[in-house]
Amino acid sequence: MRVTIHRRTRRGVALVALMASGALALSACSGDSGAMPNDDGGGDGDVEIRYAWWGSDDRHQTTQEIIDLFEEKNPGITVTPDFTDWDGYWDKLATATAAGDTPDVITQEERYLSEYASQDIVADLGELGVDTSEIPAETLATGTIDDTLYGVATGVNAYAMVADPQIFADAGVEMPDDTTWTWEDYVDVAGKLSKGAGDGVWGTQDYGFNEAGLAVLARQKGETLYTPDGELGLSKETVAEFFQVSLDLMANEGQPDASRSVEYQNAGPEGSLLGTNAGAMGVWWSNQLGALSDASGRELELLRLPGESQFERTGMYFKPAMYYSISATTEHPEESAKFVDFLLNDPEVAALQLTDRGLPSNTTVRESILPELTAADQKVAEFMEGLESDVVDNPPVPPQGSSEMQDIMIRINTEVLFGNLTPDEAADAFLKGVGAAIGG
Amino acid sequence: MAVIHEVARTRRAATEHRKGDGRAAALFLAPWFVGLVLITAFPLLASLYLSFTDYSLLRAPGWVGIENYTAMFSDPRFFQALKVTFTYVIVSVPLQLVAALGLALVLDKGLKGLAFYRSIYYLPSLLGASVAIAILWRQVFGADGLINQVLAFFGIEGQGWVSHPDYALGTLIVLNVWTFGAPMVIFLAGLRQVPTMYYEAAAIDGAGRLRQFRNITVPLLTPIIFFNLVLQLIGAFQTFTQAYIVSGGTGGPVDSTLFYTLYLYEKGFGSFEMGYASAMAWFLLLIIAGMTAVNFVASKYWVFYDD
Q1: C-alpha distances in angstroms, B182 versus A249, B104, B134, B229?
Q2: What's the mean per-residue pLDDT of chain B?
Q3: CB distance A414–B253 less than 8 Å?
């Protein structure tokens, strides 16, 4: 008996080893099946279009309501929802596209639009006759590549300094005037806050994990992350200066030590310094103010980033939250265009969606929903309105490969925080890494 | 004559019967076979082809020969991924097996409520590769996590273990060692197979517990050790979930947890270099097959089959 068991064990080992090494190694990634229940009773020779987006449960619900509304107003068109979370979205969209099954209406994002546009996967919205008359030209420019409108911004956000007035008050530090404060003031204020607010409360959260901060600094100096031709538009000095701010903030204890910074970075708005009442400042996208306010239970304020009057020009800009695009190979271009038109211009859509896809890019529609907004969102709207006259222009659509910049930024910033790279070395590594990503 | 006819008829019937069996077998095998071809074999071969192409998913694949393979060897992050993975495998697998064997020995001593303890110790194996545990790990080893609170009690100031480049991989190794339940259960089964008469005989001859362990238990257990070793090695090479969650999908801090599979995923689905990712997958297959082959050859010298 024992003999047979051992024999079997031996053969079993070989077999299992072979199967495990072969099958598992190669079929490593299995995505979600992605099949979405299509419960629309439709039928009767309906035209059916598929609408793909990413997001949270809240967004899925509102979007379904919007779809229902559209179908009600447009009998004969059925919209099939196709949604997933952010991470799965791009895997799924690329796979669907590779399989020749591109959704008719696609939500796009800045870092991916170029890639899809360059392969002519998304159509020219201008040609399809989507009404964009209520959307400011500089917002439309954020979805235009080579004079072709590949995506229309759903809404806009701004990268801003979020501040907790209560900690400022506790620490006995005055809120800075955000139109005049310099980067040196920022370091200084954060240091004072850390000292004044007592143990476990910091001045600010490290800003170096997001390239948007670098974009603002670069623009203030008359540079840009990317040129309209898709080249890097940064000087090494600017990048080094950007990293130096973090080091200065660690030196005067205006921000936490390196490993805490990494942790707070990974913790999202809810676990951030501001969200946990453990810090007075942090840079965030303006649409995150709501989540931050909810987590902190306090009334937070939006400030412009430092340095707006320190150098050549202002650096703040409006970033398209996301875009609506239409597949170039859709069988129903007319109906798809009609749907995008509806999403952009119908006040009822905006009333449902509010600021979930950014502060609506359609200014008339934006006006109409202001009274409906939460206190935090009203603050965002106000802040954006105040910014309007000072924003010189918006950055061009980033080139292909730019989706890697964030990863590179996180990696190099971490090295800087832990003291493995000097700001100078970091700047070299950053420019080299991003250069390779967008050149390859 | 009648007998011969009878025999022939029986034979014919048997053949027909067997034919029917064959059809039934084919029918029952079909679902498995279709699955194998469509879900395993086809993607497997497709990835072999893609590994020789430049393929971004959005564009049709273009043949580039062995360029992806040569590119790997001038990619510093590829080497970093190899280093991280090998460190992880070489450190965590032996530790895990020692822990598993040690506990199996304790539990084998006919403890009261064995089934209960066995389940408790097996639990981490079920949970280890899950997202929830990876998130828990991040909390436990965080700057203000459980570990540091315990350390603070003894007056030691710890740091953020998962967020420090020097320690992040260590926390993942601990996580893997902690999931020793599966090999432990197999060890337990193996220990049960060792006949007690050997121990009785040894005890009569005056061999102590340690001697018995070294000269009876270990030799008779070597096939089981070997089995566990091979399985855990292969599993460890393919570690993904823990690293993905603990590092937030980046392999950070500073690529210190950039596991091979994580980098593969990042290349494939992060920067859409499917050709490169496929080449990496095939290279991993070669590594694992090589390691397993070495294991089998080496096993001749230390694994004792009692037959």
Answers
A1: 48, 11, 18, 12
A2: 86
A3: yes
